[in-house]
Amino acid sequence: MASTMSEIKVGILGASGYTGAELLRLLNDHPTAEARWLTADRNAGQPVGSLFPHLAHLGLPDLQRLDDVAVDDVDVVFCCLPHGLTQKVVRELPETLRVIDLSADFRLRDTALYAEVYGKPHEAVELQERAVYGLTEHYGEAIGKARLVANPGCYTTTAQLPLIPLLKARLIDPTRIIIDAKSGVSGAGRAARESSLFTEISEGFHAYGVATHRHGPEIDQCLSDFTERPVTVTFTPHLVPMNRGILATIYVRLQPDATVDGLQAALADAYRDAPFVHVLPPRSLPATRHVRGSNNCLIAVHPSRVAGEAILLSVTDNLVKGASGQALQNMNLMLGLDETAGLRGAPLFP
Amino acid sequence: MASTMSEIKVGILGASGYTGAELLRLLNDHPTAEARWLTADRNAGQPVGSLFPHLAHLGLPDLQRLDDVAVDDVDVVFCCLPHGLTQKVVRELPETLRVIDLSADFRLRDTALYAEVYGKPHEAVELQERAVYGLTEHYGEAIGKARLVANPGCYTTTAQLPLIPLLKARLIDPTRIIIDAKSGVSGAGRAARESSLFTEISEGFHAYGVATHRHGPEIDQCLSDFTERPVTVTFTPHLVPMNRGILATIYVRLQPDATVDGLQAALADAYRDAPFVHVLPPRSLPATRHVRGSNNCLIAVHPSRVAGEAILLSVTDNLVKGASGQALQNMNLMLGLDETAGLRGAPLFP
Amino acid sequence: MASTMSEIKVGILGASGYTGAELLRLLNDHPTAEARWLTADRNAGQPVGSLFPHLAHLGLPDLQRLDDVAVDDVDVVFCCLPHGLTQKVVRELPETLRVIDLSADFRLRDTALYAEVYGKPHEAVELQERAVYGLTEHYGEAIGKARLVANPGCYTTTAQLPLIPLLKARLIDPTRIIIDAKSGVSGAGRAARESSLFTEISEGFHAYGVATHRHGPEIDQCLSDFTERPVTVTFTPHLVPMNRGILATIYVRLQPDATVDGLQAALADAYRDAPFVHVLPPRSLPATRHVRGSNNCLIAVHPSRVAGEAILLSVTDNLVKGASGQALQNMNLMLGLDETAGLRGAPLFP
Amino acid sequence: MASTMSEIKVGILGASGYTGAELLRLLNDHPTAEARWLTADRNAGQPVGSLFPHLAHLGLPDLQRLDDVAVDDVDVVFCCLPHGLTQKVVRELPETLRVIDLSADFRLRDTALYAEVYGKPHEAVELQERAVYGLTEHYGEAIGKARLVANPGCYTTTAQLPLIPLLKARLIDPTRIIIDAKSGVSGAGRAARESSLFTEISEGFHAYGVATHRHGPEIDQCLSDFTERPVTVTFTPHLVPMNRGILATIYVRLQPDATVDGLQAALADAYRDAPFVHVLPPRSLPATRHVRGSNNCLIAVHPSRVAGEAILLSVTDNLVKGASGQALQNMNLMLGLDETAGLRGAPLFP
Q1: Are D192 and D129 part of one and the same domain?
Q2: Which value does ipTM take for this structure?
Q3: Cβ distance C342 to C29 under 8 Å?
């Protein structure tokens, strides 16, 4: 469909947040896609550089009101709107447009569960039925054909990538999965909240949403696609005083016949051809800084001090593989482009 | 024994590291104790302020070589020397001196286990037999009579305080304890290592010592004091880009008849009169920044998403309750002083 | 007036911000003063610990509405209200109360200048006439007798302490003073603003308020007290990704007969008996971390590469000597207490 | 010379430091250049990923000993060796090789001054005579023809870019230039020093090398190229607790007939066609985070509070425009490639 001659035209709904800005950074590296319009209702009329000075010199279109853009003048729309608003906006988009939604609005297939977790009824039930969950490495075929992709959450992406191959291969006990996850602060977005102030976060560490974070049900749903019975994971998120990055430390129980070496082999095998998921040598120590700014996910397997158990480590950049990077990867699949287009940049360190 | 008239005289072996400096900061607040001599062989002859400018204006004695100090001109010695060297030095100290050792050299009662974990034979076996483990809240009586106290590790203190009362009350399964711990960087000390550089740590997060960290056996030993059979915990430390603080997220399995409320009640009961351990209301979210610079430990209990399980959160300042503060608390007990002397300062935030 | 027997009773107006919290931390160390009431209109009825968990265990009174407190049941009031509101509140306080105002509302003696700088007319002109500027080391005598003290700004304190003795001694040219100042983020307060988010500040550095910051006129006013003709300084503030601390790098031109050694000597002489201002040896490199949490100001003098010029370095903790600590120091003077009461704590490092 | 068909082959001497790693990150984005060999004597035989895990998956050659590489199998050599060693190594390289040196070894034209500043005699005087100073925007023509380019220091680049056009246009007084500069920590390199530890830098700020930093003479030399008489600047570097970025705040005195608007116009004019130097609208506030990871330099002009003076702000990423990025930009010029090749990536924020 796409060629180097004909540019892919992209629209971004809600370009005033961090995921929108990150999409623009990545699109700048994309050989054939280009942002055609950007909406941000409260900042309409402003240049992107007034909100994001780091993007000031890229020749991007100014921000516009949604009502003012020629919505269908693009091939694909990225939706970076807040949870809740998204369903209403997406259901009004022309049916011809491909849509990649970065909010949580289409991630939970069970709309009753959605209502419970997000505290309000789903407002686009018929669209939900056709939405494809966008964990690229495991739903790639469906993503390629999808009209609407629900891009996964950052925690969920980081936790699911090491777990899915092990559950598929029946190497670990699906009833005993503990995910202790730690995230940088950009996951909280750009909203001005006291709890996100520099002074409230720097030089400190804490857990939040213990047993109640909304990514818990999302992880359950996705992992359950690869197990016989529904899974309920233990999931605890924490906030790290850094901008970007997620590390998930995952405690698993081996199935009776499984070994730690077997886990390593199954993961290596599963991701042998995946351009962004790298299974490190046994007992490696991946760090979030090793993937900063990139679409990579690094995975390591460790034996536990307790026999029959193992520890998985997984890191991503929450704004890239955990959000805008995976969204672009999904776009590439949906449009038949090279999966890595726009995503080949090396991580930034230090 | 002590009165406001008669000063307690203190000596510090190895005052050039962070735990030594922190002792000096806390002693500055102590109403009756005073540093009489400070050793630092490589920096002998220098004023403390040349190593630690923040302590320059406190009127402290200059650093000296160990051979040059009148060792027995003090009531109590804090030993802040590196692991390994400590045993040799402490065994040469006059028997009349009370000693609080902040290294790991006397923490493991089983000297064979010491040799295995630390990779060399124990060099003061007879002293080891008389050493008392210095987790103040649970070994206080023995500490009061001890000549040699082995001050616990920072991770171990943080993890043991919430676990011990629950194990004593048989509310949790001792075979299923997972400790996911996160520490600030000062725990690595002041040695110049590439892995401790600002550029290698800032804006990143990683696990280390997975299943192999030396605090694992120490936690096992201590918890086993309160259980019928020896315990082996799962323990994973991580490094947080902050100077101070430890948070332990602890996953436990309830005993058949136990409840999350029961855990809360048992902890509240255990620490009702403890001046430094505060059990927060159910589902609280303690942060390391809430205890920064203080000797406090904050504990919270959460239900898990998985029935029959619970999550414990515990925070300390690794240099205070996790090291020098607990050492001072132990000194207070050993000398019959008010347990909180020198330790009443409120945390520093932001 | 005060004795160890009779407690000094303290009220705090606007205790929900960082300067209020810092006052409470410092008062916890004060031997004879105690917080009697705390106001915070929006958070009335809540315990202090709900806003500031680090202060939860100090036995403090709950927050109240201003209308609900027995205002005159205290000896002294600290006013930590926002700029603008302060004038209205302070002018209603009983005349018998001593007041230390931490806002900018009474710092500028010239109310016309106030109106120009703060964009609205002064609302307590008669009070302004009696307000004493609270730079303790240089206005101490007047502070001791004052009813209303205008506590200086954080930048102004840090810049003025090294400059005043040099201007008094006519060693530097008052027409050529350049103050390049760098502050931690707590100076911006606890208000939820996008520009104060962790993600907007961490891993970055920028100047702000170039030539327009409100502390410029305040510095001019104070320095002019010590010169023959009014002074206009160059003043540029910058934001450092850290919680606390200010460093001022000050470029001065020597008077024809002055020398860099003379500057050093004049400063050492001026602060010989000052308990908190320490003039370091020539060419020292004071760091904000050397004063963190303390009321200290460290000053160093350097020759410049350019003949006839010198560079002064000055550091404080903006929340202590730059705000609440100096306020407490002023209270001590106003009430005839030891100037250092509540302020003897050593800095916290690392 | 170069075409998309024929790859440019690159060698890197001393690839184990941050500037080497940054070159590899940027080369990964370069359309026609490719690293052919990498030396790192102490780490010879190791894959790049063992030193820099973020570069592990780029298919780079392993590190080798200098003696083991086919030095002349490349078109251009980047030298990232330590100061001092560089002169000896570079003078042994085949005359046919183009060399871009990132150390300070060839920056000072006056070898007597070099000896004074660096404390040892220059060891490649004849090469020095032919070295071209690599501030791309102002020495571009000579760089294009050079065999050996001395890549400028990070502070010097950041300070010189705003100053040179103003000196050329005689708009500012060359005898009154004060450069107050602030740098992230990566400028100190990867050597394990106590002063570079996370705990020694985080949550603090300090000046260093006041009036003695080696970039002072380098700035003098370069600016003097554009003035009638030799210049001596005041230059004070500071360390910011962040990984990357430099901000220079520069205080200048206008020439009698000059205006602040005139400065703005002269700078805008000078850099109208420069792809990486962006002169912002008057009174803008550039931040280091706006250029992180990019080769951009942002410049802003402000009036001062003092008549006849102005303040310039300039920001770069010290590892990109201040080191490896400018080196690559110079390579592009030397080889007749598009100046922006490999350098079009947008900054990474947050």
Answers
A1: no
A2: 0.96
A3: yes
Judge whether residue C5 has pLDDT over 50. no
Task: Tell me if D339 is assigned to some domain.
Answer: no
Structure letter (DSSP) for residue A215: H
DSSP state of D272: T
The answer to whether residue C28 sits within a structural domain is yes
Q: What is the pLDDT of residues A101-140, one digit of tens each?
A: 999 999 999 999 999 999 999 999 999 999 999 999 999 9
Of D327, D72, C29, nearest in space to D342 by CA: D327
| C30 in a structural domain | yes
Do D184 and D302 sit in the same domain of this protein?
A: yes
Express as a percent the part of chain B with pLDDT over 90.
97
Eight-class DSSP state of C61: P
C205 and C294 fall within a common domain: yes
**CA of B209 to nearest chain A CA: how many angstroms apart?**
9
Separation CA B311–CA D343 (nearest Å):
48
SS3 D142: helix
Q: Which residue has the higher pLDDT, C83 or B13?
A: B13
The 10 Å CB-count burial string (b at 16+, else e) for A266-288 is bbbebbeebbbbbbbeebbbbbb
> Partners for B (CB, 8 Å, 3+ pairs)?
A, C, D
| CA dist list (Å): B110 to B133, B148, D289 | 12, 16, 53
CATH value at residue C63: 3.40.50.720
Q: In chain D, which residue's Cα lies nearest the Cα of B193?
A: D192
Q: For position B164, which CATH number holds?
A: 3.30.360.10
Residues A168 and A97 in one domain: no
Q: Which of C79, C154, C222, C297 is catalytic?
A: C154
Please indicate whether, in this complex, the C-beta atoms of C350 and B293 are within 8 angstroms of each other.
no
Q: Which domain holds residue B255?
A: 155-320
Q: Is the pLDDT of residue B5 over 50?
A: no
Domain count of chain D?
A: 2
Residues of C in contact with A186 (CB under 8 A): 199
Q: Quick one: tokens of B43?
A: 């920096």
Catalytic residue at B79?
no
Among A55-64, B82-91, C143-152, C176-185, name the one with the lowest average pLDDT.
B82-91
Question: Which chains pack against D, by 3+ Cβ pairs within 8 A?
Answer: A, B, C
Residue among B185, B186, B194 minimizing CB distance to D190: B194
Q: Is the pLDDT of residue C295 over 50?
A: yes
Which bin fits D283, alpha (ψ -120 to 50), beta or left (φ > 0)? left
Segment D262-276, tens digit of pLDDT: 999 999 999 999 999
Please report which confidence band the pLDDT of residue D5 belongs to, taking 50, 70 and 90 as the band edges: very low
* Of the candidates D192, D46, C286, C183, the residue with the CA atom closest to the CA atom of residue B199: D192
Q: Residues B218, B303: one domain?
A: yes
Contacts of B98 (CB under 8 A, 6+ apart): B75, B76, B77, B146, B147, B148, B149, B331, B334, B335
| Pair A140, A329: CB distance under 8 Å | no
Average pLDDT over residues B11-22: 98
pLDDT band, residue C215 (cuts 50/70/90)? very high
Burial A108-140 (b: 16+ CB within 10 A, else e): beebeebeebbeeebbbeebbeebbbbbbbbbb
Q: Considering only alpha carbons, which residue of chain D is nearest residue A288?
A: D54
Residue D43 lies in a domain: yes
B230: pLDDT strictly greater than 90: yes
Nearest CA in chain D to C286: D206
One domain for residues D163 and D300: yes
Nearest by CB: D192 against B18, B194, B241:
B194
Query: Does residue D112 share a domain with residue D174?
Result: no
- Closest CA relative to residue C181, chosen from C89, C86, C318: C318
Q: Do C163 and C308 share a structural domain?
A: yes
**Per-residue pLDDT tens digits for D259-316:** 999 999 999 999 999 999 999 999 999 999 999 999 999 999 999 999 999 999 999 9
